[in-house]
């Protein structure tokens, strides 16, 4: 059933970089298809963590001593690598945060200070709770109104409806680059241009796009782009917020503390310049430094190659899964990442997920932190198999065989 | 159904000892789920709903002054099968016996992961709720 991949990279060599993929779960070889939740980590990244602690561990941006200088250099090198990776203009436009959620909350709070009663914020039906709730909180805090872009049954956002929602009261538009629940790739550049016509700022949740796509923030012309390291083969607990310089200068800082100040007296504090204004406290130094190893590793493979390979998996997997009786795929956008969100007619996602786990197959089940989207699709949840660059067609075959084995048990 | 909770849970452990592999075990849980007497529709309401991120559970308790009867339902069949085991263990018992019940049999039959809070399937909350009902009935009695 499986065809040999035509992609230029060597899948076995790639998999050998991930020791966890060799382990067994419930007596079977692990088939890990929960990459939308988090990806596994290449040895280059875990080695970088050990190396950091064994050679240069110290606090950054403060000591005059050698180790602190080395750690600071390594820390700032990640900022530069990430800048280059997303093609930002300046490295100080890259702010380190705890992750995508923290990045979005940073904008929601800081931008929120500029929001007035009656202003409007637009999000989309496809959003993760982390790109809904911060905006709802902002609207409640400032008396602004939240509007939602509808979608069609394929999971494609309605551009005409979006245009109709935009008006002179719109101050901000926030949506994801790739939907975590359906895999839809949104037309970020086109939507950003539309939002800019009414001078609204654009915030992109890039949690799901960074591992799969070549992201160029200048080409997209977005104002903010939120990133998580752990979904792109990097460490947990670290992420970044890209912001255009003019916006980051205009916004007040989110949190106060050390690192983010210029001078402090009891009467008045002046803030540090970018990026430190938004980086209060000792950062996740180890995470930042190790993240560079993941970025280098992705770039060695090439984001274009990764996208091409994963699109092969998408095509292969869609056809293979549709051969399963009663299987319905949710999210059939023409422009989609390698993610399969599906249900089996008459069966509950939890039952399927539980039995697949017995076969060593790791999928996500539930509402995927997108309850409004699930309500729109009139399902309580789905089974989601989200591909990473180390997944194979053989593993998709294993998933399909697993489904064909467990479905009769539940009927 | 007059044995003690400990006797009932020992029976359950014996019953599960017979299964040689996971498929047999889950086949059994699934058939228990299918056999579970449905909760009376009038009790399948929001007030009796225990929300979980994965599956939903409805639980209703009746007390005749001596013993507590539980009925429950879920939208997921495996969750329902585990509910059936819980009801078999705890229903038709006195509030005191329910409050004091040792439910380690779930661990012994290899279903502990279903009671992990990360599963968010409503089962942990259901067991808590069963004990809360028993406590409430107990204080009514006193």
Structure description:
The complex is a heterodimer of chains A (411) and B (142). By secondary structure, chain A is an alpha/beta fold. Chain A folds into 2 domains: 11-32 and 303-410, Aspartate Aminotransferase, domain 1; 46-300, Aspartate Aminotransferase, domain 2 (3-Layer(aba) Sandwich), CATH 3.40.640.10. Chain A is built from 14 helices and 17 strands. In chain A, a hairpin with a 2-residue loop joins strand 1 and strand 2. Chain A is globular and about 70 Å long. Chain A starts with 10 loop residues before the first helix and ends with a helix. The relative contact order of chain A is 0.17. Chain B is 49% helix and 11% strand. Chain B contains 6 helices and 3 strands. A 3-stranded antiparallel sheet of chain B has the order 1-2-3. In chain B, helix 1 crosses helix 3 (77-90) and helix 2 packs across helix 3 (77-90). The A-B interface holds A 26, 347-351, 353-355, 358, 365-367, 380-381, 409-410 and B 22-23, 26-27, 30, 53-56, 75-79, 114, 120-121.
Could you name the key traits of this structure?
heterodimer; A: 411 residues; alpha/beta; Aspartate Aminotransferase, domain 1; Aspartate Aminotransferase, domain 2; 2 domains; 7-stranded mixed β-sheet; 4-stranded antiparallel β-sheet; 14 helices; 39% helix; disordered N terminus; B: 142 residues; mainly alpha; Sufe protein. Chain: A; 3-stranded antiparallel β-sheet; 3 strands; globular
Describe the strand arrangement of the main beta sheet of chain B, using strand numbers. Answer: 1-2-3
Terminus-to-terminus distance of chain A = 26 Å
Q: Give the count of structural domains of chain A.
A: 2
The overall pLDDT average of chain A reads 95
Shape of chain A: globular
Let me know the largest β-sheet of chain B.
3 strands, antiparallel
The dominant shape of chain B is globular
Class by alpha and beta content of chain B: mainly alpha
Instruction: Characterize the biggest β-sheet of chain A.
Output: 7 strands, mixed
Rg from alpha-carbon coordinates of chain B? 15 Å
Helical segment tally of chain B? 6
CATH class value of chain B: Alpha Beta
Q: Which residues of chain A sit in consecutive blocks of at least 5 with pLDDT less than 50? A: 1-6
Average predicted confidence as pLDDT of chain B: 87
Largest interface: A-B, 17 and 17 residues
| CATH-level-4 superfamily name of the largest domain in chain A | Type I PLP-dependent aspartate aminotransferase-like (Major domain)
Annotation, overall tally of beta strands of chain A: 17
**Beta fraction of chain B:** 5-15%
CATH architecture of the largest domain in chain A: 3-Layer(aba) Sandwich
Low-confidence stretches of chain B: none
How many helical stretches of chain A? 14
């Amino acid at each position: 059933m499986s065809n040999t991949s035509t992609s230029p990279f060597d899948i076995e060599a790639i998999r050998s970089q991930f020791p966890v993929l060799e382990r067994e779960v419930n007596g079977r070889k692990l088939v890990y298809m929960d990459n939308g939740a988090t990806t596994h980590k290449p040895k280059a990244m875990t080695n970088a963590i050990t190396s950091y602690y064994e050679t240069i561990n110290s606090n950054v941006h403060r000591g005059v001593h050698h180790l602190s200088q080395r750690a600071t250099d390594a820390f700032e090198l990640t900022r530069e690598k990430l800048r280059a990776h997303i093609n930002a203009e300046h490295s100080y436009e890259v702010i380190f945060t705890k992750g995508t959620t923290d990045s979005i909350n940073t904008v929601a709070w800081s931008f929120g200070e500029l929001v007035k009663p009656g202003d409007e914020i637009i999000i989309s039906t496809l959003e993760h709770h982390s790109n809904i709730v911060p905006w709802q909180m902002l609207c409640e805090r400032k008396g602004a109104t939240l509007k939602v872009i509808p979608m069609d049954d394929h999971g494609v956002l309605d551009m005409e409806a979006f245009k109709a929602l935009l008006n002179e009261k719109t101050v901000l538009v926030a949506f994801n680059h790739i939907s975590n629940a359906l895999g839809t790739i949104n037309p970020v550049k086109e939507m950003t241009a539309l939002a800019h016509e009414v001078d609204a700022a654009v915030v992109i949740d890039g949690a799901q796009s960074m591992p799969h796509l070549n992201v160029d923030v200048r080409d997209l012309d977005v104002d903010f782009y939120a990133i998580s390291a752990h979904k792109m083969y990097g460490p947990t607990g670290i992420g970044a917020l890209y912001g255009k310089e003019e916006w980051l200068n205009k916004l007040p800082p989110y949190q106060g503390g050390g690192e983010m100040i210029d001078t402090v007296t009891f009467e008045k504090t002046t803030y540090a310049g970018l990026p430190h204004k938004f980086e209060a406290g000792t950062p996740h130094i180890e995470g930042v430094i190790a993240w560079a190893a993941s970025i280098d590793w992705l770039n060695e493979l090439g984001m274009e190659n990764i996208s091409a390979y994963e699109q092969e998996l998408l095509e292969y997997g869609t056809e293979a899964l549709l051969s399963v009786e009663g299987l319905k795929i949710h999210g059939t956008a023409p422009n989609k990442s390698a993610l399969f969100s599906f249900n089996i007619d008459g069966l509950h996602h939890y039952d399927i997920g539980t039995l697949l786990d017995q076969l060593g197959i790791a999928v996500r089940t539930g509402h995927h932190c997108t309850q409004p989207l699930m309500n729109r699709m009139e399902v309580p949840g789905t089974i989601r198999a989200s591909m990473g660059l180390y997944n194979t067609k053989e593993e998709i075959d294993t998933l399909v065989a697993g489904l064909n084995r467990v479905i009769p048990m539940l009927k | 159904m007059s044995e003690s909770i400990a006797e009932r849970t020992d029976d359950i452990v014996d019953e599960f000892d017979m299964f040689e592999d996971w498929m047999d075990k889950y086949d059994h849980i699934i058939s228990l789920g299918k056999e579970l007497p449905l909760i009376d529709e009038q009790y399948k309401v929001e007030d009796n709903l225990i929300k979980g991120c994965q599956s939903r559970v409805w639980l209703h308790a009746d007390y005749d002054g001596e013993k507590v009867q539980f009925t429950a339902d879920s939208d997921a069949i495996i969750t329902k099968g585990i509910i059936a085991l819980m009801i078999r263990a705890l229903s038709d018992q006195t509030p005191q016996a329910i409050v004091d019940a040792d439910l380690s049999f779930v661990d012994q039959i290899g279903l502990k992961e279903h009671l992990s809070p990360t599963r968010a399937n409503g089962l942990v909350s259901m067991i808590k709720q069963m004990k809360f009902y028993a406590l409430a009935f107990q204080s009514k009695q006193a």
